[in-house]
Amino acid sequence: MVDVTERAKQLREVAYYPGCALEGSGNGYDVSTRAIAHNLGLKLRDVKDWNCCGAMEVKNIDPKIQTYLSSRVLSQAVNATRNNVVMAPCNGCYHNLKKAEYDLAHDQNSRDVVEKISAKAGHKTYEAGQAETIHALDWIKETIGEEGLRERTKGKLAGLKIANYYGCMYVRPRHIFPEKDQGPGSESTSKPHFMDDLLAAAGAENVEFPLKTACCGGAHTLSDSDMSTKLVLNILQAAEANGAEVIATECPTCHSGLEMHQIRAEKRFGKKTNVRILYFTQLLGLALGIGPRKLGIHTNISESIPFLVEKGLT
Amino acid sequence: MPIHEKSLIRPENITTHDDLVIEGVDVSGHWSTFIETRVIADYNEAMEEEIAALPGGENIHRCWQCGSCTNSCTVHAIEPRFNPRYWIYLIRTGMESELLRDKDLIWQCVSCNKCTYACPRDVVPEGVMKATAHWLEMKGHVPESPSMIFDKIFTEQIVEHGRIEDTKVLMQFLKRTNQPLMQDWLKQIVMNIAARLPVKWGLKSAWSFVFHPRTRGWKKAGAALQDYIIEVEQHHKAALGAGTSNAASNDNPPQRKLHAAE
Ligand code: SF4
Ligand code: SF4
Q1: Which of B78, B168, B179, B185 to mutate to test the interface with A (most CBs of A within 10 A)?
Q2: How far apart are the CA of B147 and the centre of ligand 2, in A?
Q3: How many CB pairs under 8 A join A and B?
Q4: Among candidates A191, A261, A197, which has minimal Cα distance to A228?
Q5: What is the CB < 6 Å shell around ligand 2?
Q6: Each residue's pLDDT tens digit, A145-191
Q7: Three-state SS for B149?
Q8: A276 at the B interface (CB within 8 A)?
Q9: What is the model's pLDDT at position B178?
Q10: Mean pLDDT (whole number) for B14-39
Q11: How many Cβ atoms are within 10 Å of A200's Cβ, its own excluded?
Q12: What single string gives the DSSP state of each residue in A104-169?
């Protein structure tokens, strides 16, 4: 059994891997993650000279290119940043680092390829077990926790109806997340609840939402737009039907997919939905009393500031 | 081999008879369905092995046809002809011409891995879909899919810079697939943001657009990756009998970019 306070202390300073999306279209996620870290007294040390993890695309050329790319990020964290807990807020990055960890621990061929490319690239080969990858949800949950949030937010999100949307990469495939589905206290891959827990601790009312882990079609958001629009529309309409005013997201790809296809659904299929889309870190930031601009809410495509003003959250 | 597939009962295989009496019973019209007898003589016996040799296809032999993948599939719910279980069946029985009827659908898999989650045999149907889409392209049955074009642009940018810049990927993708840049919905998105954003943000995006974000000290890693990509591409071709079988161990591969045709 891990000592909870020891663990919380360890996670107060983590290697932070923002990834490409958080530097571009998902900038609001990066800004709000840094803002709440600052507010909560948690230290983020950017992984030095990080590279792309391979996202959803590279594996289709060859999966081991992705294994290498992710392993280099982990190697940079361990060897150049000197921190062996890597926190990745993007589901895609989180998933890929976890997958690389699993493959390196279980497949000799993956180890051989990574070793060969690392040697040519001139850096230390990452070996399975040297680092641990966690999601931004784990990070807040294990450092501050629900109790801590309750104290700090004083239920500020009370009356806000939220549908929590986790997406695919946070839970599937199950085998790359050995710490999940371990009974009480651990995250579930069929009905994830960490985001629900944190937002509830901040006072929000989580609505019943059966599409928590449905797919938004993010992999083909541009190459098969009609498919993505239909999948997103399903998610938006289900959230609205269950009374949600806001969809909370934890991934830049899901987030911008929902935002873009909300507009596209209206333009192409005449289906308008009004549910707002916010990163869970933006919601927690509001609950902690941080201003919307400092949380990058004005850089979201989905317009939610007038609504937040109306709710008395800014 | 018997085929119990509803999807084989297609309009062109169903016949009705206006005037047919069998053993004294009148079976004319629609009350009874007759299906044309089919003879399949063109099994492609190499197909399963070839797809299994491409990344993702490794576990196809494990499938026991339970149908959990299709049942749980995101795309199947929207496009009922998208049927991973059926395609795995066709591949394993070598029924290439049947598979080719669906050749324009297979690339649509969105990699949600619901099938992988549901599969009791660890087939990783998501991987099989990717391998099959890859195989169809390599064999020339289909042109490069928009998804593959996207993946290649993406990978090229990583090999070159270590990181990607999303606006740049978007623009290159629209260009290579001959789509207009200013589609109504994209325009709306740009307008939404522009109306609210401070000038500083616009400048920042313009900056990262001109000066592509890059990883410091990436040159050697990029070159090592490019070598590896050339190696695996030759390997895949060899698996399909289109290249030399010892290409994978070639130490001096010809220098070329990932997207050779450009
Ligand atoms: S779920 Fe697995 S075993 Fe069942 S049909 Fe699909 S691939 Fe085959
Ligand atoms: S990964 Fe592809 S085949 Fe599997 S359930 Fe998702 S869309 Fe269907």
Answers
A1: B185
A2: 15
A3: 169
A4: A261
A5: B 72-75, 84, 109-115, 125-126, 129
A6: 999 999 999 999 999 999 999 999 999 999 999 999 999 999 999 99
A7: helix
A8: no
A9: 83
A10: 80
A11: 19
A12: HHH-HHHHHHHHHHHHHHTSPPP-TTS-EEEEHHHHHHHHTHHHHHHHHHTTTTTT-EEEE---ST
| Residue matched to tokens 């700090």 | A152
Q: What is the pLDDT of residue B248?
A: 40
d(CA B84, CA B214): 39
Cα gap A134→A177, rounded to integer Å:
10
Q: Searching chain A, which residue's CA lies closest to the CA of residue B206?
A: A24
CA distance B258 to A159: 53
pLDDT at B171 (0 to 100): 84
CA A110 to chain centre: 26
Contacts of B13 (CB under 8 A, 6+ apart): B35, B36, B38
The pLDDT confidence band at residue B26, using thresholds 50, 70 and 90, is confident
CATH number assigned to the domain covering B47-142: 1.10.1060.10
Q: For residues A271 and B45, give the distance between their C-alpha atoms in angstroms, rounded to a whole number.
A: 47
Task: List chain B domain ranges.
Answer: 6-38, 47-142, 146-220
SS3 B25: strand
Which structural domains are found in chain A, ordered by start? 4-135 (1.20.1050.140), 146-310 (3.40.50.11810)
Residue nearest to atom 5 of ligand 2 (CA): B73
List the single residue in B110, B162, B163 with the smallest CB-CB distance to A219.
Answer: B110
Asked if residues A93 and A19 have their Cβ atoms less than 8 Å apart, the reply is yes
User: Would you call B110 and A120 a contact, using CB atoms and an 8 Å cutoff?
Assistant: no
Nearest to A227 among B78, B145, B152 (CB): B78
Q: What chain A residue is nearest to B222 in terms of C-alpha separation?
A: A121
Q: Within 13 Å of residue A159, how many CA atoms lie on the same side as its CB? A: 7
A98: contact with B, CB 8 A cutoff:
no
Nearest alpha-carbon partner for B154 in A87, A139, A220:
A220
Structure tokens at B126: 């998501």
CA distances from A122 to A15, A54, B38 (A): 22, 19, 60
The pLDDT tens digits for B106-125 are 999 999 999 999 999 999 99
Among residues B185, B212, B179, the alpha carbon closest in space to that of A269 is found at: B185
Q: Is the CB of B63 under 6 A from ligand 1?
A: yes
Pairing assessment for the beta strands A13-16 and A85-88 based on DSSP bridges: parallel
Cβ–Cβ contacts within 10 Å for residue A40, how many? 17
Strands (E), chain B: 14-17, 21-22, 25-26, 29-35
Distance CA A63, CA A205 (A): 40
Going from the C-alpha of A29 to that of each of A18, A22, A49, B125, the distances in angstroms are 9, 6, 20, 32
What ipTM does this complex have?
0.93
- Give the whole-angstrom CA distance, residue A218 versus residue B150: 13
Q: Angle, nearest 10°, between helix axes B125-138 and B84-93? A: 60
- Report how far residue B237's alpha carbon sits from residue A39's, in angstroms, rounded to the nearest whole number: 54
Q: What is the pLDDT of residue B190?
A: 76
Choose the residue to mutate in B81, B111, B122 for probing ligand 2, maximizing ligand atoms within 8 Å of C-beta. B111
